[in-house]
Design a protein that fits this description.
By secondary structure, this protein is of the alpha+beta class. It is about 30% helix and about 25% strand. The protein contains 12 helices and 22 strands. A hairpin with a 6-residue loop joins β13 and β14.
Length: about 450
């Protein structure tokens, strides 16, 4: 088939690129290729009863499919340039914010209406954090919730499914440069296009890296975030979550001067497994529906690691730590904070007697046998720092799940139009190594779609 534009990946970036292209250029022939399932067939087999842990499905429905890895996330759209990626460094701060606000407007049109927009503007919590050596980053946050996020995606698909060709369970194996465009080789055959947008997300990191090598597109190593997911009674963090919902807090450790940050906060949420390239890690979700809320709040504590010469494989380093956790625990390990401080592993008996009841079935164990000392020391320091603004965080019964890893793609060399050195080949979303969030990824899709439409 001959297309004007082929989009590889139906995550947030790919979806918004398809939406904007079909709106601005309805005469265009647009195709979207996705390695995972369509939305209605995306279902993780873990039910907490018969299947309690990851069974390594051939295609992970949590990580792949229409909506990308964000489809079953908490549905948080952070409108800020302070975190979530460096899109503003390519397109400008003002345009980046305007695109994120546009994305929020579209989400409201397709089922997100009535959800709350939180903001750090003018909060007294900023001062409280600074008084305790913590830095609260500024942002506006739209919380859709996992359930409402699904509805938005479903409505979005209904809007564009007849305006573009969608191919699910159809991974792209190769892309070849031709004289006047590209040949995209997929499971269902070869297709040509004038412009190609790659939006493969984090799960496509290995494929993206190999493609860049083949096409001689320069890349450079990115950071990796390694840490744990914290779970505690919702009341402990309610002062922050009631006002801000998602609070991004950064702490600089005294011992090593490393940055530790909170990430993906889920008030009244659940802790879940996540499978990335066969490695089981941990994440968190929460819901807009009051009936689905739990008594716990969970969030990640992550330490960012950057590597210099001669080591470049930051993702490989993090994968080795995650594999060690899987080896020791058969998947995710859970440990009481009190046990960690006392230098002993948690047991099933101690977890059963714990005040905080875990929302994920994980293997009781000892995280000090998995996480490097420098990273673990930073996490412990951060927990004591958070205890000063949210007393109870450092309680013995606080649960730590490990490991949580945020893999970042190699940063692909792109210009101010998010275009590679090959004219007509664009790389957007988390697959570019430039964006790390739903809002930034979605905005990058809109940006590239508009650039292509302008050039025609």
């Amino acid at each position: 088939m001959k297309y004007d534009v082929i989009i590889v990946g139906a995550g947030p970036g790919g979806i918004f690129a398809a939406y904007e292209l079909t709106k601005l250029k309805p005469q265009f022939k647009v195709a979207v290729f996705e390695a995972g399932h369509s939305l209605e067939f995306r279902k993780c087999p873990i039910d907490g009863k018969k299947i309690k842990s990851c069974i390594s499905c051939k295609t992970c429905s949590i990580m792949s499919g229409f909506g990308g890895a964000g489809a079953f996330s908490d549905g948080k759209y952070n409108i800020t340039n302070d975190f979530g990626g460096t899109l503003h460094e390519f397109i400008g701060k003002k345009e980046a914010i305007e695109l994120m606000e546009y994305v929020d407007h579209i989400n409201m049109q397709y089922g997100g209406e009535g959800t709350r927009m939180y903001s750090t503007a003018g909060t007294h919590l900023k001062k409280l954090c600074l008084q305790n050596k913590l830095n609260l980053l500024e942002a506006k946050v739209r919380h859709l919730g996992t359930d409402k996020n699904y509805i938005v995606l479903k409505n979005f698909y209904e809007e564009i499914k007849d305006k573009a060709d969608f191919f699910f369970d159809c991974p792209v194996t190769d892309i070849k440069k031709q004289e006047h465009g590209f040949t995209v080789i997929a499971k269902n055959g070869e297709h040509t296009c004038t412009d190609c947008i790659i939006s493969v997300g984090r799960s496509g990191s290995s494929w993206m890296e190999s493609l860049c090598k083949k096409l001689n597109i320069p890349t450079k190593s990115n950071r990796v975030d390694i840490g744990v997911r914290v779970e505690l009674p919702a009341e402990i963090f309610s002062t922050l979550t009631d006002e801000l919902y998602e609070s991004k807090i950064v702490y600089r450790t005294e011992k090593f001067e490393d940055n530790v940050r909170t990430f993906c906060m889920n008030p009244n949420g659940i802790v879940v497994n996540e499978n990335t390239n066969g490695i089981v890690t941990v994440n968190g979700h929460s819901f807009e529906d009051p009936a689905k809320k739990t008594r716990n709040t969970n969030f990640a504590l992550l330490v960012a690691k950057h590597f210099s010469e001669p080591f470049k494989d930051s993702n490989g380093y993090a994968e080795s730590i995650a594999r060690l956790s899987n080896m020791l625990g058969g998947g995710v390990i859970v440990q009481r904070f009190g046990d960690l401080i006392r230098g002993r592993r948690s047991t099933e008996k101690r977890i059963e007697e714990n005040v905080t009841v875990p929302t994920l079935s994980a293997t009781p164990g000892d995280l000090s046998l998995v996480l490097p000392k420098r990273i673990l020391d930073g996490i412990i320091e951060m927990i004591y720092a958070l205890d000063k603004i949210a007393p109870g965080t450092a309680n013995d019964d606080t649960l730590l799940y490990g490991v949580e890893v945020k893999f970042y793609n190699m940063q692909v060399e792109i210009d101010k139009n998010l275009q590679t050195k090959l004219k007509g080949l664009y790389v957007i979303g988390d697959g570019s190594g430039v964006t790390h969030s739903l809002s930034h990824a979605s905005a990058s899709g809109v940006f590239v779609a508009r650039k292509i439409a302008e050039d025609e």
